[in-house]
Amino acid sequence: MPDLENAADSLRALLRASSVDIKQVTVLLDGFSPEARVHATRSLGAREQKALWQAAEGVYESGLELLVPTGVAVETAVRHFGRNSLPAFTHFEKRFFRTAQGQVYGANFQLMAPLTGPGYFGVSARPEQRELVVDYGPAALPSHAPAGWPAIVPNERGISRFVYGFLVDRLRRVSEHVSIGEPARNGKPLGSWFVLCREA
Fold this sequence. Notes:
By secondary structure, the protein is an alpha+beta fold. It contains six helices and nine strands; from the N terminus they run ααααβββαββαββββ. The radius of gyration is 16 Å and the shape is globular.
């Protein structure tokens, strides 16, 4: 546990600097063990996540392989452990998969899923901004999901409407396994962020 806390302290210290050096952050994260990387990223609060989002702007190309690495079999789930900057229900997972056609989709896995729904989405690259776009809109959802995943339901129905409805996330690469995101609803940023750490 002390090693995990040291990793978290080191990451937070870099992100609390007056000027964040994203390359230093990348080197630090890439050097962590998978366990330390998840623990450190899930220790980040709103202040650090906002600093990371700003520092990562336009630095690295963000391709779909950030979410589902090349070589992962079709419709195989790739887990990303996340933390958002909201005051409650801060820990969650996004799981992604690639289709035979090379498209990437996913869903959210978190404690409130029985109420909010799985929050399926589609992912596309935005090369000019060096970002990925996670779209929860009806036209972006997959036609089917991997075996064992929950049923696909529209995000504009019931309680899900208030969580995932009209939502689009922008994602920026931070390191080989880590990305930082900013959600927007109806095109307006929500003033919150979330960090994702892909399993090894």
